[in-house]
Amino acid sequence: MAETLRGRAANWLGLVPFIVFAVLFLILPTLYIVVGAFRTPEGAFTFQNIIGLNTASIRNAYWVSIKVSFMSALLGCAIGFAIAAAITLGSLPKRVRGPMITFSGVASNFAGVPLAFAFIATIGPAGLITMYLRTEWGINLRVYGWNLLSTWGLIVTYLFFQIPLMILIITPALDGLKREWREAAEVLGATGLQYWRMVAFPILFPSILGTMALLFANAFGAVATAIALTGPSLNIAPILLYAQIRGDVLGSPNLGYALAFGMIVITGLANTIYIVLRIRSERWLK
Hints:
By secondary structure, this protein is mainly alpha-helical. Helices cover 76% and strands 0% of the residues. Helix 6 runs parallel beside helix 11 and helix 8 (151-175) packs across helix 10 (192-220).
């Protein structure tokens, strides 16, 4: 009995660094922001900071952030699902899957200044591909409305880590589709399209929708890539919050806490949706 208790204590001891890290750098800062969002600089309770979010610049920043996050999540889900289906259920060689999963694991964490620099150097105003198309083919992307330092430019940049993240998350769900389900559908006379529309897709839909919510939260909280790519020229919530931390805008620290609190609420809801739908999908895929 004593040895068992010591073993359990040792196992829990291994979690101590994680618990300390989570408390110091996640829980306590979040609580500090939440409390600060409902206090005046003098420490009195108030709703004025939350009411202060209803200004044109802050509303617009939230709206642009939601648009960028939603579109990058939607496109990331669609493209990532197609790639994952091809390497999991398609006729591609099995040796393709390993490198693709490995690359996805690396690319899903590739963000910030290196990612922004890579896109600026490739398809920016003076990027490699931009200049090649202009000099060799006479195609000026600017004439066609392309601008990397814009909302759609940021969406395209975000796809670099959104698509791999979708591949990593949806691949196990695709692996969970049982071969017996397809065989049963074929025996009953269903075509491949009917199988996907009436069997596979309804089963995968919670996973797809949940992953889209996760990708939305992933893009909504991204700040380093946006700042490195567009600087202050694009008004999105993370950049506005970053400017507030530096003391450039808003002028009220507690209003900055309210701005961060709003971001926490939005990302928290998105992650809750992901968790709930993930649990539901796993019931079918076990």
